[in-house]
Write a structure and sequence with these properties.
Length: 169
């Protein structure tokens, strides 16, 4: 029996403009928590003979990864700084950069985080032929460098801590 995932609720910051330049921690989940994106595997490192935990992507995980790499191609001034594809969810740090015109006027990215996530999900759905995504997504506005470093480390260590993850099940 699958572990029930946490209930979804609207946690968007009321009144916040999600097209503002900044860094956003985004989590997308597979519907019903099914492990469709990959499998956790342990391999022995060639140099130091220490076990390394990795995510071996499925064909759906491969499509999801390719679509992540396309985000910066589709959206000028927007890129994924760090990501991990887990068996049933994806974590990423999405960066919206500000742009300057020649007159020094600040131009805000015209695309909101929600539009980028929706387009990403649509793209993957179209490529695999069905929707595997849970409705909505989780996001967090990264407010400072310390928080950014903690989230970056969390993403980096997520495969090694899979059995402790709230999405494990």
């Amino acid at each position: 029996m699958r572990k029930e995932l946490p209930a979804r609720k609207n946690v968007r910051l009321r009144g916040y403009d999600y097209s503002r330049p900044g860094r956003y921690f985004v989590t997308l989940c597979v519907k019903d928590g099914h492990d469709m994106l990959g499998n956790i595997v342990t391999s022995v490192g060639a140099i130091i003979n220490r076990p390394k935990t990795l995510v071996e992507l499925t064909k759906y995980g491969d499509v999801a990864e390719k679509a992540i790499r396309e985000i910066s191609v589709c959206y000028q001034g927007i890129f994924v700084d760090k990501y991990v594809i887990m068996p049933n969810h994806i974590h990423m740090i999405l960066v919206l950069q500000s742009k300057h015109e020649s007159g020094g006027r600040l131009i805000i990215a015209p695309t909101k985080v929600s539009a980028i996530v929706q387009q990403y999900k649509r793209s993957v759905t179209k490529l695999i032929g069905f929707s595997m995504w849970q409705k909505s997504y989780h996001d967090h506005i990264i407010r400072d460098e310390d928080e950014y470093q903690r989230i970056w480390q969390y993403i980096n260590e997520n495969p090694e801590k899979w059995t402790e993850d709230k999405y494990y099940g």
